[in-house]
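Lab notes, practical 5.
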Amino acid sequence: MSAELTVLVLSTLLLLAHVMLAIRFKTKQYGVDWNMGARDEDLPPLNAVAARLERARDNFLETYPVAIIALLAVEITGTSSPATAAAAWAWLCARIIYLPLYWAGVPKVRTLAWGAGLLALLVLIGSLLLS
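Output from the prediction step:
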């Protein structure tokens, strides 16, 4: 399996981690009955940690489709190279680092991790456009 497909498969585990962490901390605040219910009721704002995990998940979901498209496009077009493999791994590592930084509320460094992930995606997209 190519590096790009390996990263894509591993990124699904990262997506699950985002989803499960966000819902775990939301359920911890609102309770199991809320989680298992229709979730129609108005709720008080999330506490700081649960809110950060929800925002981190939302942020991942905003850029994840771009990553999926770029990684699959590299595979489909047969344009995999050491540069695209490095960019794929850099994106995944940046996104893995981003989650605990956001969870802990670390400013600036979190933004740098996000920027590194974005740069890696731009390398993937650029390699496709130049191929």
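Observations recorded by the TA: DSSP finds five helices and no strands in the chain. Helices lie at 3-30, 32-36, 48-77, 82-104, 109-130.
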